[in-house]
UniProtKB/TrEMBL annotation:
GO biological process: amino acid metabolic process
SMART domains assigned: ELFV_dehydrog (SM00839)
Source organism per UniProt: Aeromicrobium marinum DSM 15272
The keyword NAD is assigned to this record: yes
Name the UniProt record assigns to this protein: Glu/Leu/Phe/Val dehydrogenase, dimerization domain protein
Domain Glutamate/phenylalanine/leucine/valine/L-tryptophan dehydrogenase C-terminal: 140-348
Binding of NAD(+), residues: 176-181
Length: 355
């Protein structure tokens, strides 16, 4: 794989030996505005893996922001390392200086391995930061509205498939109950759904088990997939939907918070052929970016939540478009996002800061 095999506007490699920073910022498109997307801190096996991830994630953010109705382009960043041992003030501030060097073409936020307090540290070097703590005027943990949006998307998928948005009495399998998954379980419990969870972190499982007697756990994702499910919600890292998973999945709906759930594009067709309703990940998990984007106008949680509620209508429109056009839901979501970028965007021009 080469960088120029992807249609990205800009890829920035950030290296600060003194702090140990090794990061990559990817800007897929700024046709709708400056790129907004989180920073992932992860111990990638290789630099090639990190590059592949940031290219895929920034591509997804461009489509996610467009489909969410935001005047923002698609960007993402990855920091190579173990956040438990490699994260430091010096490293985060060095990273902030690289973000600042882009002069507003990229706004960062939280992602896997980074949190709102980290954004406060990064903000000491750059103003192009969202997802800051409430104490510093930010939106706080963006997983709150990410989960809320996934829940709205799940209700829309239920409406499309079963004729009612209610999830009461339905069995939902949640793979990954970290930042997003645990909030999603709370919404499901409130609606009297039956929830089965799995996560390698025992503390995360213990937390959601304490929410309700209608929540139970299994030891692995394989065990979860073997359960008789109505809905499967992948909420961990990407690539969760493989050919083998589709063959074993009992759920009628797939709707989760993880990014890049399809192991390869052909999985969307396999899901369609299996009669499984797939709510595209970047459509339903846009609540987080809606939440942090609201900071750019002075954060108001109620306003952001009202906008995230619109994920229900967006998801339903995508599912209905797929049915009408005879295509997969993944293709329908792409076409809807591309239509907005084409009609509302700056016709492929790169976004430049106001001078």
């Amino acid at each position: 794989m080469t960088v120029f095999s992807h249609p990205h506007e800009q890829v920035v490699f950030c290296h600060d030996p003194a702090s140990g920073l090794r990061a990559i910022i990817g800007l897929y498109s700024t046709a709708l505005g400056p790129g907004l997307g989180g920073t992932r801190f992860h111990p990638y096996a290789s630099e090639a893996d990190a590059l592949a991830d940031v290219l895929n994630l920034s591509h997804g953010m461009a489509y996610k922001n467009a489909l969410a109705g935001l005047d923002l382009g698609g960007g993402k960043a990855v920091i190579i390392g173990d956040p438990r041992t490699d994260k430091s003030e010096a490293l985060l501030r060095a990273y902030g200086r690289f973000v600042e060097s882009l002069a507003g073409r990229y706004y960062t936020a939280c992602d896997v391995g980074t949190f709102s307090p980290d954004m406060d540290v990064i903000a000491r070097e750059t103003s192009y930061v969202t997802g800051r703590t409430v104490e510093h005027g930010g939106a706080g943990d963006s997983s709150v509205l990410t989960a809320f949006g996934v829940y709205q998307g799940m209700r829309a998928a239920a409406q499309h498939r079963w004729g009612s948005p209610s999830l009461a009495g339905r069995t939902v399998g949640v793979a990954g109950v970290g930042k997003v998954g645990r909030h999603l379980v709370s919404h499901l419990v409130e609606e009297d759904a039956r929830v089965v969870v799995t996560d390698p972190v025992d503390a995360a499982v213990s937390h959601v088990l304490s929410l309700s007697s209608d929540v139970r756990s299994v030891a692995s994702t394989e065990a979860l997939l073997a359960e008789p499910l109505d809905v499967y919600a992948p909420c961990a890292l990407g690539g969760a939907l493989t050919d083998a998973v589709v063959q074993t999945l009992s759920a009628g709906i797939v709707c989760g918070g993880a990014n890049n759930q399809l192991a390869h594009p052909g999985v969307a067709k396999l899901l369609d052929e299996a009669g499984i309703t797939y709510a595209p990940d970047y459509c339903v998990n846009a609540g987080g970016v809606i939440q942090v984007a609201d900071e750019l106008d002075g954060f108001d949680f109620d306003r952001a939540k009202r906008r995230a509620t619109g994920i229900f209508d967006t998801t339903l429109a995508v599912l209905e478009r797929a049915a009408s056009d005879g295509t997969t839901t993944a293709d329908a979501a792409d076409r809807q996002a591309e239509q907005r970028m084409r009609e509302i965007g700056r016709l492929g021009q790169v976004w430049l800061p106001t001078r």
